[in-house]
Amino acid sequence: xxxxxxxxxxxxxGLEVNEQSSEGKLLVNIIDVLDDFxxxxxxxxxxxxxxxxxxxxxxEDLTELEDEVYEDSSCPDDDYxxxxxxxxxxxxxxxxxxxxxxxxxxxxxxxxxxxxYESVYEGDDTRDRYYDDPGL
Length: 136
Fold this sequence. Notes:
Layout: H1 2-14, H2 22-72, E1 80-84, E2 91-95, E3 105-108, E4 115-122, E5 125-130
Helix pairs in contact: 1-2
């Protein structure tokens, strides 16, 4: 666009458009406005290219991060206990290691907040309760 506007500037000079006449002033001012538009368009195009490059970089970084996070979370199923929430029936998974902790523990469903597992530590005795098993 800049080249085309520069061509129009040269054309007005070559045709000796009189800037003193009403038509000449109009043409010169229109070409000046077109020049401003061309500069702004070029600026927007540059900003768009920079933004596109930035988004591509973010996407690549996010892909690497997802790979690391999901790769680390792909542990064997033996490391997790899965229970069904008695209220919303979603599956709730938690690390099996917490079952062996000597402290009180309450695990809630992330969807509805219902307690799905509770462990109460009383000295040498620990009572565990899975709330999805009506027999317990």
